[in-house]
Amino acid sequence: MRIARPRSALSCLAAIGVGAFVLAPLPAVRQAATTVRAQVIPKVYVSEIVWMGDADDPNDEWMVLANGSSELIALEGWRLAAVDGTPAISLTGFLPARGTFLLERTDDDSAAPHADQIYTGNLGNTGEDLRLTDSSGSEVDRAGRAGAWFSGEAGSWRSMLRRRPEVPGDQPGAWGLGVPGGTPRNSQGDADGDAHFYSPNIDWEAGGEGPEELAEDCDDADP
Fold it and tell me: Which sign, positive or negative, has the C-alpha torsion 139, 141, 145, 149?
């Protein structure tokens, strides 16, 4: 008969330690998953704001909307409005695919090109919180924040220009300084390159030179 020899306390402790090591789950080394918010250019966004007017009149304010999609967008029922209530613009007309839409305050003299739409109500010089909503009331874009404009210069009349439309418009990183006088652009386009311009919003006008004189070129497919 074989007699089991008693184990020493040291060997028992060693066995327990080995067993615990074997039975215990190995620690999983996990790298924290970083949630990256997809940056997508909005379907329509505010692309430029002249909140300071110009050298002739500080009330010559204007804004430009841009179409980030490849579809013609009917703006009926859309709104561009400040949270404080002024301005509050009920939009009309059409925004061409990959095109622009010029909003001029009070009259058609705030910017050189013809306005796609005239609006009333001033932009505060200390900033505005502008919200763009579609015909269903859903928010599409924001521009600025109450308290101070992110960019633009009153003395040099440089515009506040949307340099990164994929960044939300209520963030300073979305904006930068434009050139003096800005770059106002309306819905006129020359798709066929015949130097005759077409706009879904602006009627042909006789007199003058340039695109304003040839604003409406049928469907811009017939030279």
Answer: negative
pLDDT band at 59 (very low <50, low <70, confident <90, very high): very high
Q: Give residue for tokens 């949270």.
A: 83
Contacts of 130 (CB under 8 A, 6+ apart): 46, 80, 81, 82, 83, 142, 143, 144, 169
pLDDT of residue 207: 55
Distance CA 146, CA 121 (A): 16
- CA triplet 189, 194, 196: central angle to 5 degrees? 55
Average pLDDT, the chain: 82
Q: Cβ distance 175 to 47 under 8 Å?
A: no
| Residue whose tokens read 């003395």 | 155
Question: Is the sign of the CA dihedral 196, 200, 201, 204 positive or negative?
Answer: positive
Q: Under 8 Å CB-to-CB from 156, ≥6 apart: which residues?
A: 180
Q: What is the DSSP letter of 173?
A: G
**Is 160 in contact with 136 (CB distance < 8 Å)?**
no
Residues 6+ apart with CB under 8 A from 209: none
Region 178-192: what's the mean pLDDT? 91
d(CA 53, CA 159): 9
190-220 pLDDT, tens digit per residue, is 877 777 778 889 876 655 555 555 556 555 5
Amino acid at 70: S
What is d(CA 220, CA 188) in angstroms, rounded to the nearest whole number?
Answer: 10
**Token pair listed for 59:** 């009330």
* Strands 117-119 and 100-105, bridge-based pairing: parallel
